[in-house]
Amino acid sequence: MFEEREMPYEVVRSRPKSFYERFDRKDELQHQTHYCPGCGHGIIHKMVAQAMDELGIQNRSILISPVGCSVFAYYYFDVGNVQAAHGRAPAVATAVKRSRPESIVVSYQGDGDLSAIGSAEILHAANRGENISVIFVNNAIYSMTGGQVAPTTLLGQKSTTTPEGRKAEKEGYPLHVSELLGTLEAPVYIERVGVGDNKPIAQPYRAVRKALEIQVKGLGFSLVEVLSTCPTIWKMSAVESQHWVRDVMEKTFPLGVIRDRTKEAQPREARAVPRSWQPAAKGSRSQHR
Predict the structure, then answer these.
(1) Phi/psi at 193 (nearest 5 deg)?
(2) Are the C-beta atoms of residues 71 and 85 closer than 8 Å to each other?
(3) Would you give the DSSP letter of residue 117?
(4) CB within 8 Å of 87: residues ≥ 6 apart
(5) Pairwise CA distance, residues 88 & 97, whole Å
(6) Domains within the chain, CATH numbers bracketed
(7) Across the strands, what pairs with 83?
(8) How far apart (Å, rounded) are the C-alpha atoms in residues 225 and 52?
(9) Long-range contacts of residues 26-31, Cβ cutoff 8 Å, at least 24 apart
(10) Which of 38, 51, 164, 202 has the greatest number of beta carbons closer than 10 A?
């Protein structure tokens, strides 16, 4: 018989208000997301939602979710949701922010989406200093489509399209997106964090919250890269995948702040859509030619 002991702490489980109370994607799974056990997306989703709650921006927030494992994010976030084509989330986020400058616009993207087909969109949005927040989930593989090599796949890492492991002479080197964007003049804040260890999980949350707060203050472009797990495609247990992020991925993608100009950055003037571009009032004729 085990002796009952009084717990020295209270276990509290709560759901951020920026989540729906029920997830209606499947009738039998309304209490949970569709993500695989051990996937980092659920953790990162909660960080974003909790930051929205703390900043009081739920009713102003618009989430842009493109193609990828997070394609069903609109089933979870009780905010404005816009679905984007593969890789185009930064362009869509730019349009939303400029047409609704009072909104807080979050572009939530995976590495296959952002660093491959969407590489042009993220580069130019960052270079323009668009006042948006980008959450970049990097698990070093194309997950939703079955495990093909991604620009972020590590050297030697096996995938369905690199069965012998990624080789620099064939597939090139892993693309360091955060460092690349960090060379631009416009970005205000870029940081790489990871969910490979439960102990320092507070740091990724602080980074996500800071990225949203920068947009609230109107300071400009921010991006948080989150090294995340993919146990299913990596063919690992949830615990093993966490260790792989910490012990392997972080050697190629070191954690830390790449760019931080928040102290000297000044609020940017909102780039509203020109009056001549806006739809004409009902019953009137547009003067735009």
Answers:
(1) -130, 180
(2) no
(3) I
(4) 66, 67, 113, 114, 116, 117, 118, 119, 121
(5) 14
(6) 27-277 (3.40.50.970)
(7) 65
(8) 18
(9) none
(10) 51
Three-state secondary-structure class, residue 144 = coil
Kindly tell me the burial class for residue 224, based on how many C-beta atoms sit within 10 Å of its own C-beta (0-12, 13-18, 19 or more). Answer: buried
Distance CA 273, CA 255 (A): 37
pLDDT in tens, the chain (289 residues): 445 555 565 656 688 999 999 998 878 878 888 999 999 999 999 999 999 999 999 999 999 999 999 889 999 999 999 999 999 999 999 999 999 999 999 999 999 999 999 999 999 999 999 999 999 999 999 998 888 999 999 999 999 999 999 999 999 999 999 999 999 999 999 999 999 887 778 899 999 999 999 999 999 999 999 999 999 999 999 999 999 999 999 999 999 999 999 999 999 877 655 555 555 555 544 443 3
Gyration radius of the chain over CA positions = 20
Q: What residues have CB less than 8 Å from 19, skipping those under 6 apart? A: 45, 46, 49, 76, 77, 78
Q: Is 113 left (phi over 0), alpha (psi -120 to 50) or beta?
A: alpha
CA 194/CA 82 separation, integer angstroms: 26
Residue 72 contacts by C-beta under 8 Å, 6 or more apart in sequence? 25, 34, 65
Angle at 145 between CA 139 and CA 148, to 5 degrees: 60
With helix as H, strand as E and coil as C, how does 213-247 read? Answer: HHHHCCCCCEEEEEECCCHHHHCCCHHHHHHHHHH
Q: Is the pTM of this model over 0.85?
A: yes
Instruction: Report yes or no: 191 and 224 within 8 Å, Cβ to Cβ.
Output: yes
